[in-house]
Amino acid sequence: xxxxxxxxxxxxxxxxxCFRCSNKGSWFDFKLxxxxxxxxxxxxxATRADxxxxxxxxxxxxxxxxxxxxxxGKHPDVITMLTGKGARQRHLSMDTxxxxxxxxxxxxxxxxxxxxxxxxxxxxxxxxxxxxINFDKNGRRMITRLKVRSITRKECMRLDPSGGKMGxxxxxxxxxxxxxxxxxxxxxxxxxxxxxxxxxxxSLPNGCNSLPITLLPLLERFDKIYLWLDDDIPGQExxxxxxxxxxxxxxxxxxxxxxxxxxxxxxxxxxxAGKDLADILSKASPLAHSQITSFATFRDEVERxxxxxxxxxxxxxxxxxKLDALIRGHRRGELTVVTGSTGAGKTxxxxxxxxxxxxxxxxxxxx
Length: 367
Prior knowledge:
alpha/beta
């Protein structure tokens, strides 16, 4: 086949696949195998498929963006939301807020659909401003984009300017010599993690499904990446996908709930609840192999079955109580094989058992 000599690199997620040697993995793995190819992907110099240079993404006016950071003190409602200890308040310190250069401003958003009659089409909102700050090749600080979020309506959020480049919130706080980093789902989570652990933490651009390929080169220098996403199904699925994209061997997943179904969902919730975030972080685990498991995965389930056997029993037979004692009834997902010599009574036994289960409403197929 003509692809036997080809190396494919996915533009969607950065993974590669070599048809010649069957080597495959993440973009990080590719560069690790070939050595430091720091210039192999210069995002600023990217070109279109037709060879034409791409247009440089828009950036916010630096003076205006900086004024939002400087004017935080003029927005007491935003400060109360960030530092307060009440409901829907974030328990963050001013030192943390200043380090991450959080700002505030007034932005207009479309009125809610259920707004009273006579409400203007656009309504002003007090907003918290999360700046994405990076440094150019000369080390000059630049605000590349702003994430704007209303403090009263979570759905009122925008990235300013539209069409700008993607970035990490908190990137400017990471020491140049740091070899590990914590990646969270939201801005409040990143600040909560840093405040509680003093470990470098940044947040994804736009939730648990947002890790643009253009940002992958920034993460290549780290030996350890802790993925502290929300401890729910979307967050953990996103963490697993990101680990495969970034390199499974260097990624560790953090589980905020620590096995408690009623525990805090994310890092900021854990801070608010008074949990020990450093302890939670210390229990981060590598991504488990999809085909390999360990006893630790099933420890709680096995203990529960031993302590409360009736909770895992299935439909019991009225005719064969000794069988119930052996297999704990007819349980969904289990396959029971009945064997014996010719004429031993297998068919008679199973016919009776089928009638027994039928009478109890169990769907039975006999062939």
